[in-house]
Batch of 4 targets.
Target 1
Amino acid sequence: MRNLFKYLAVIVITFFTIPAFALDDAVNTGRFNNIAIDGYDTVAYFTESKPVKGNKNITAVWHDATWQFSSEENLALFNENPEKYAAQYGGWCAYGMSNEATVRIDPEAWHITDGKLYLNYSKRIQKKWLADKMYRIEDADLYYPEVTNINTFSDK
């Protein structure tokens, strides 16, 4: 009987602690779907200088997430060079990532720096991120591989 309690204790502890060590997905997708960055066209931030909702019929799968695009042209650009167009940190909030956390985003809170797209949780948080973005980018670059499964992909 004593051994049974020991085994049950190990099972309960394992059940509750293993998820704490799990890494988040490399790409910020919906809670109940696999759509990257809330279905916004990541290429449009570069080509149209604004957030544009993607079309559910124009998609590419990259890093285990479905990316939606507003046009076939944007899809082709992404397919040629996804690293160039994909939001940094898989579309997780750049400010949050600089604090070692995966945080959802507001697609309207965006900024391009040195040819890279950064998204934030809100415009209020974006102001904080922009105030010291170079330091925050350094931190987020370090934390992204630690808190997500990005290292499981060979192109990163």
Target 2
Amino acid sequence: MTLEILTPDKTIYEGEATSVTLPGTLGFFEILNNHAPIISTLEDGKVTVRGGSAKEDTFFIKGGVVEASNNKVIILAEGIMQK
């Protein structure tokens, strides 16, 4: 699936992913390939992106919204925190 992580200032991540773990308002959840369409609010926390080659990236966001549909995931984050 394709994934974009965007802030008001810039694009943080753009590429392919096999799974994304997100800090939802009601707890962490994971979006996988062929996931049912979803829109959810996000809390401050860790976003873990796993790619096809066993690669893993971690980002710390300051809240936001995620939309997933047709194997495209877009995360609109209010900001990115320093690691």
Target 3
Amino acid sequence: MQKADGTERDGHAGVLRFDFPSNGREQRLRGISWEEWFRTFDERRLNFIYQEERSSGKQGNFFRLEGPDREDG
């Protein structure tokens, strides 16, 4: 689990990320505990959107975290 440094607000982590080793690490990301990650996820009332299967039938790997107030959702 990671968060993007400098995105913190209101006493909790800002931008949350999953660490996929094959993608490498961005320098501004730092590891956080599952506890901190889930606390921030819950406090911000985030939704986990994922693609289980592609239109081709292959396993999907797309996901995003978004807030409930997103206007284009």
Target 4
Amino acid sequence: MTSYGDDATVREILTGTGDTWAVVGLSTNTTRAAYGVARVLQRYGKRIVPVHPKAETVLGEPGYASLAEIPFRVDVVDVFVNSALAGEMADQAVAAGARAVWFQLGVVDEAAYERTRAAGIPMVMDKCPAIEIPLLG
């Protein structure tokens, strides 16, 4: 199995890239993976920014309908959308000046991975930060 993000990149994004995480696909639906992961990120001191067409307030944070609408810089864009849509989210993250991009477990777009890294942006794909962050110790 191909790994899209070595341990050093995972560690750097989780500990050194910054604490503002836009979570694309995050809504008030507590049964969705994005909600649980956002809660874990908050527990580890990250500020989460919900990005969803409904622009709902989630876990106490105001939401935005798109990455372009966020009026401040985000450090990491964490993508929970279908792989077919994820590449566009990576491109928007690069355009918005994000410092890193993270595609969740099961979200894979190799062309987007290559484009993002070619733009000089670290990226992890097909991994979950809520699984990885407790392993850092």
